[in-house]
Hints:
- The structure holds two protein chains of two kinds.
- Chain A is mainly α.
- Chain A contains 15 helices and two strands.
- Chain A has helices at residues 21-27, 29-48, 63-74, 77-87, 97-118, 127-130, 137-161, 170-206, 224-252, 259-294, 310-328, 330-333, 336-363, 379-402, 409-412; strands spanning 218-219, 222-223.
- In chain A, strand 1 (218-219) and strand 2 (222-223) form a beta hairpin.
- Chain B has helices at 25-33, 82-86, 113-117, 159-171, 187-191, 208-212, 238-242, 255-264, and strands at 11-16, 53-58, 68-73, 92-93, 102-103, 123-125, 152-154, 197-201, 218-219, 231-234.
- The longest helix of chain B is centred in the middle third of the chain and has 13 residues, at 159-171.
- Chain B is globular, with a radius of gyration of 19 Å.
Amino acid sequence: MDYSKPIDNALFPKGCERCSFTKFSLFMLIPAALLLWGVISAFVVLANGLGTTGLDDKFGFGLWITVDLAVIALGAGAFFTGLLRYILNIDELKNIVSFTAVVGFLCYTGAMFILVLDIGQPLRSWFGYWYPNVHSMLTEVIFCITCYCIVLIIEYIPLILEQRKFESNKFIQHLAHNFHVYMPLFAGIGAFLSTFHQGSLGGMYGVLFGRPYIFRDGFFIWPWTFFLYLLSAVSAGPMFSVLMVTLMEKITGKTLVSWKVKQLMGKIGGTMLIVYTIGKFLDSYAWVNSVLPRSGLTFDQMFTGFVYSSFWFYAEHIALVIGIACMALPALRKIPAFFYIGALVTCFSIVLNRFVMTVQALGIPVMPFENWQWYWANWAEWGAFALILGYSIVTLAVTYRYCPLFPQEAELNKK
Amino acid sequence: MAHFKDFTVRYGMVIDLDKCTGCGACMMSCQAENNVAPQEDASNKLRALNWLKVYRLSNGKEYPEHETVFLPRPCMQCGNPSCVTVCPVVATDKNEEGGIVSQVTPRCIGCRYCMASCPYHARYFNWFDPYWPGDLKEALSPDVSTRPRGVVEKCSFCHHRFMKAKDKAIANGEDPLMLPEEAYQTACTEACPNGAIVFGDLNNPEHRVYELKQSPYAFRLLERLGTDPQVYYLSKREWVRRLGDNYLEQEETGKPLQTLLNNSH
C-alpha cells in the first residue's frame, strides 16, 4: 500500500492522478450546498404547489423553461459529436465524445427533473405518452427527449463498465466492448431523436400564432424556429462542451483534451454557426417586415425598459457575428483568447435567445389595452436550478475521478 | 387562417360595450355558477381565477374628453383556437357541435402551454389548492366539478347548461341542435342588468346574435391574428373598436379585417 497516494487510488483510471480524497470531499461541499437548497425548494414546490414560485397567469413559463431550453441546446454537443464520431467517422473526436455524452446526459436529465417540478400535476406526466396529441410540438418533445435520455444512458454505461474495478471481470469487459461495437447505431438513433426534439422546442414557439413576438411562418408543418433551434443547438453544443472541458482543466490543473481536438470542435461549431447566423438574420428580417406588420405591430412595440429592451435583440445578433469571426476564421480561432471568447459569446447568444423567446414573449401586451408585465424568478425557482447544477457537479466530479472520461489525459499529463 | 372545424351550431356572444357599466355582475355570477374558487388574497390579479374578466379601457384623453369603457372578456371559444393544437394531452378540444372549446381538467397535466398560446389570457392556472372558507362549500354547484391544484381552467360558456338544454330537448322530442335562444343561456348573460351580453347560436338566423354580429359596429378582439373568435363586441365609438386590435398608424379601424375577408374569398 502506497500511503503517499490517495486512499481511493486503486479506482483511478490507468495512468491518471487525482487529488487526495480529503480535498475531493471538501470540494464536494460546494455541490452539496447547492443540492440542499435545491431539495428544499423542490419539496416546497411539490408539497405546496406552483404558487410558491414567481410564476403567474401571464408568465406560465419562466426561469425553468428558459433553463430547460438553454441546457438542451448546450447539451447538443452529445448527439452532434456522436454523429460526427460514429457515423461520419471523424476519429479525432473519440477523445472528447465520452465527455460530450456525459454533459448531454446531465443537461437532459436535469431538464427532465425541472419539467417534473414545472408541470402542475407531476403524477399525470405519463398522460403525455398515453393520450398524445399528435398535433402538438410538445408531444414530439416529450417523446423524443425521454427516448433520447435512454440513448444517453446507454452512451454513459460503457464509461462505468470501463472502470478499473471491473478490469478482471471478463463478462463486463465483453459487455463494454459490445457497447462500443453497437455505439454507431445508438449515435444514429440519438441524432434522429435530437434533430426532432431540438427542432420541436423551437417549433413550440413558432406555432403560437397568437403571440406575434414568437410566431413564425415556415416550411410545411414546421415554423422557421424549428430549423433555427436545431442549428443553434449544433453550433453552441460543441462549443459548450469545449468550455466545460476547459473549466475542468482549470479546476483540476491538468490538460484533459488536446488543443487540436478543441480546435476541431470549434471549427465544427463555427461552421454550423455560419449556417445558423444566416438563417437567424433572415428570420429576424422576415419577422420585422412580415409577421409584425401583418399583426398590426411595429418593431419598437416589442421592446421596453432594460430587461425587455432592444439592446438584447441587437446583442443576440452581434454576438453571433463575433462568434463567427472567432470560430470560423482560422487565424483568430488559433488564438486561445479569441477561441474562448467566440465560444462564450455563441453560448451567450443562444441562452439569450431562449430567454427572450420564453419570458419576453409573454411579457409583451398583445391586446392593445394591456400593459407590459414583469417576471422575477424567486428563490424556489433558482433553487431548482441549483439542484441540477449541484447534481451535475457531483456526477461530473465522480465520473472524472473514477472513470476514463478523457482518453488523452494520461498521455497529455505524463511527467 | 382556416377554421379548426366546421359546426352546424356555433355558440357565441355579442357584447354591447356601450351598454356595459362595468358592474361586475357577470364576473360574480360566473364565479358562483362554475365553482370558481375564491382567493385568500386576490390582490394579485395575475394569480386570481376569473373565467370572465372585465377590463377597463380608456381613450387616453384628458377631461372633459375623457371616456372609459368596460370590456368583459370570457373565453373567445375561437373558431381556430391556438390552445387546442398545442395541448400535448388533448385536455382541451373543439370537437362538439356548439363550437365550445372544452377543458378536461382531469386530463390536464398543468404544463401551461395553452396559457402561453392564448393571446386573450382567458386561461387560468390553479396555483394553490382550491379553498372555500366557512360555509361556502355548501353553496357549491353540483353541476360543475371543482378543480384541483395544478390544472388549467377557463370559461366553458356554462357547458353544463348546454347539456341540460339538450337533454331536455331530447326528452321533449325536439332537435337538440336547434335549441331556441332562451333554452340555453350562460350565467353571465342572465346576470347582466343592462342586457349588454347577448348569447346564442351564431349560425342560427332565429337567434339575435346572428343579426347583431353583422352590425357595422361589431368587432372581435385581435381578429387579424387569425383566431376567429366567437365573441363579438359592439361599440359605436371608433376608439373602442380600434382598441380591439393592433393597427399600424396608417391603417383604418376595421380595414385589416376587410382585407383578410377579401383575401379569403
